[in-house]
Design brief:
This protein is of the alpha/beta class. 44% of the residues lie in helices and 15% in strands. The protein has 15 helices and 12 strands. A 4-stranded parallel sheet has the order 2-1-3-4, sandwiched between helices. The protein has a 4-stranded parallel sheet with strand order 6-5-7-8. The longest helix has 17 residues. The chain is globular.
Length: 311
């Protein structure tokens, strides 16, 4: 089928099955275009909490679909492809984090949302890149913190808050792929361009940035800033929605170490989902995402704390 036929079929299935499609900014453009809501991790969590449809179709990676199931357990949650995982979530298995907790029993655990349901279940608070600083600042200054699993986001939050936290040694392979040498060379070619970066990027990349923020934060910054050019240091999928918001602005993807073709960084896990898989997923209502009630009951507590603080 061509794209329009898939769109027609998916829209028909949405009505027939009373389904809603939630998609992350890093999905393929055509998936973003057919989605009912496109957002970052915080926006998607907030939207999942409000869903009244019978089926949540989550076009993103597995931990995001799990989070939707934790927040709205009576809904059926399906995902186009179970192989849509996350290198960052995989870097922090729950038993290993529990060992660290046991070593520092007086510390509370703040977990970045890019983590499994099991990891969320042993956390005290969850955060996203949108609210990480706010979440950390909500904790009393004399309360020691373990921050997992993203060390780059953790370093940035420590710098912004002045807090000393124990950081889990995890990182996103996409955001660690940016080349500082290529970025500086690119900026030399576009000296008027503003560099905007996601806080999962390494410190040397963040030092070059005129703005650091979540995917939604970057879009809002570009909309409000009068600059005519931006170099964007995050997963290249964001450029689709961003360009819609600022059609007359030049958006340049930040270069990665290895990619000399498109000079951009793409998440292979996010790109596992395709329009055809989205259609098949809705047609068959599978694969379905499940979270045990034991894990869900524990994991919902830090997530609800986050949503309350983020209001």
């Amino acid at each position: 089928m061509d794209k329009q036929k898939y769109f027609d079929a998916i829209n028909r299935l949405k009505k027939e099955k009373n389904a809603i499609i939630l998609a992350h900014y890093y999905q393929f453009p055509e998936i973003q275009d057919i989605a009912d809501f496109v957002g970052d991790s915080l926006g998607l969590s907030q939207e999942a909490a409000k869903v009244e449809a019978d089926i949540i179709v989550f076009a993103g990676v597995h931990f995001m679909a799990e989070t939707a199931k934790i927040i709205n357990p009576t809904k059926k949650v399906i995902i186009p492809d179970f192989k849509a995982g996350c290198s960052l979530a995989d870097s922090c298995p729950a038993p290993a984090l529990q060992e660290l907790k046991n070593k520092y029993p007086d510390h509370i655990v703040i977990t970045y949302i890019n983590a499994s349901a099991e990891v969320k279940a042993i956390s005290d608070l969850v955060c996203t890149s949108s609210n990480a600083i706010k979440i950390v600042n909500s904790v009393p200054k004399d309360q020691p913190i373990i921050f997992a699993p993203d060390k780059n986001l953790g370093k940035y939050v420590m710098q912004q808050t002045g807090r000393d936290m124990i950081l889990w040694d995890g990182a996103c392979i996409v955001h660690e792929a940016f080349s500082i040498d290529k970025l500086l060379a690119l900026h030399a070619k576009h000296p008027k361009a503003k560099i905007i970066a996601h806080p999962e990027s390494e410190t040397h990349i963040l030092k070059t940035a005129h703005y650091i923020g979540s995917t939604s934060g970057m879009i809002n910054y570009v909309k409000a800033n009068p600059a005519e050019e931006f170099i964007v240091a995050t997963e290249a999928g964001i450029l689709h929605q961003m360009q819609k918001e600022v059609p007359n602005t030049v958006l340049i993807p930040a270069p990665s170490h290895e990619d000399n073709t498109c000079a951009c960084s793409e998440c292979g896990f996010m790109r596992v989902n395709t329009l055809e898989k989205l259609y098949q997923c809705m047609l068959n209502e599978a694969p379905e995402v499940f979270v045990s009630e034991e894990i869900r009951a524990k994991a919902i507590i830090p997530i609800e704390r986050m949503l309350e603080i983020s209001k």
